[in-house]
Amino acid sequence: MSANADIHLYTASTMNGWKPTIFLEEAEVDYQLTHIDFSKKEQKSEWYMELNPNGRIPTIVDRGSDNFVVFESGAILWYLAEKYDRFLSHDPRERSETLQWMMFQMGGIGPMMGQAMYFHRIAAPNGQEEAFSIKRYVDESRRLLEVLDKRLEGRQYLVGDAYSIADIITFPWARAYSWAKTPIDGLENLKGWFDRIDARPAVQKALQKPKPVPAFWSSADEEKFLAENAARFASDVKAG
Ligand SMILES: N[C@@H](CCC(=O)N[C@@H](CS)C(=O)NCC(=O)O)C(=O)O
Questions:
Q1: For ligand 1, atom 15, which residue shows the shortest CA distance?
Q2: How confident is the model at residue 226 (pLDDT cuts 50, 70, 90)?
């Protein structure tokens, strides 16, 4: 990790935040890493929102290309895959399939599991127990995980025979099923895919950055982490 690396990554230890970190570790690319601290609302600071108008992580700046800025994790992975020619097939059909599964993550798995997590982990502990919303998003998350499971029938990875940016982008969300309190019983193809990706050293290295967090992943919830996480959003929930 060096200060004169091309890629400067601004991120945090979250499902979207880990996507580019996993890519960069897998591709063994040198990069500069800045931790955006949510507890200080750095993602909403003026300097950061000039890079990312959405005020969310992740963002990259390509110092090697006139400080070109890319926001939105799907666009970031696509940019990195093209810049480093890794994890995206040159075959037009396989390339299209990779992008299809990326869109499926960006438009489905991420938003739905994100809402299941919000209602379970943030709204409920702060006094907004919304049974209807929880059921709606957990059911939809389960349905989407079933789609992944079916896709993985007889396959090692989501597209072709190779690990691609479709796997990299989907893994952090799907793997956090317990954080979304979404059951994966019976989804044996999905479990096998988790095992294969869990076993990749670059993935484990990336998950420790920029700051190790204990609970999104583990099946056992860690009380202190849960309480701190919920408290961080208490004022937002009350503000509605
Ligand atoms: N569609 C965006 C979503 C980014 C996003 O929601 N990031 C979350 C962390 S996973 C965030 O920055 N949350 C802080 C906030 O909302 O203030 C992407 O894929 O990059």
A1: 56
A2: confident
